[in-house]
Amino acid sequence: MEILKVSSKSSPSLVAGALAGVITDKGQAELQAVGAGAVNQAVKAIAISRGFLAPSGVELYCVPSFSEVEIDGETRTAIKLLVQTK
Q1: pTM assigned to the model
Q2: Which of 33, 36, 40, 82 is deepest in the core (most CB within 10 A)?
Q3: Residues near 12 by Cβ (< 8 Å), separated by ≥ 6?
Q4: Is 84 helix (H, G, I), strand (E, B) or coil?
Q5: Could you give the domains of the chain?
Q6: 74-85, strands of its sheet edge to edge
């Protein structure tokens, strides 16, 4: 599964375009975000991507969960957003 890492500095429009491309190709993707700002950008990207795909009849569903990731040798808690079509 394709994992798209989102930071607080990520452009929601660019992430949305990447997400729409992965969804079109594979039917599902995972967004990974650490911190409130990154989660905010990821959720915006999902909403924008939904707008890109809805006219062609593709409906997106998002399943959030927690995940442990290692960043610079430190374990951090991330939000994992599984995005898929029905």
Answers
A1: 0.92
A2: 33
A3: 41, 44, 45, 48
A4: strand
A5: 3-85 (3.30.110.20)
A6: 3-6, 28-33, 74-85, 60-71
CA atoms within a 13 Å half-sphere pointing along the CA-CB vector of 59: 2
3-state secondary structure of 72: coil
Report the run of H or E that residue 36 belongs to, with start and end. Answer: helix 36-53
Q: How far apart are CA 69 and CA 33, in angstroms?
A: 10
CA 44, chain centre distance (Å)? 9
Q: How far apart are CA 65 and CA 17, in angstroms?
A: 23
Q: What is the pLDDT of residues 1-46, one digit of tens each?
A: 889 999 999 999 999 999 999 999 999 999 999 999 999 999 999 9
Distance between CA atoms of 43 and 54, rounded to whole angstroms?
16
Residue 12 to residue 63: CA distance in whole angstroms: 18
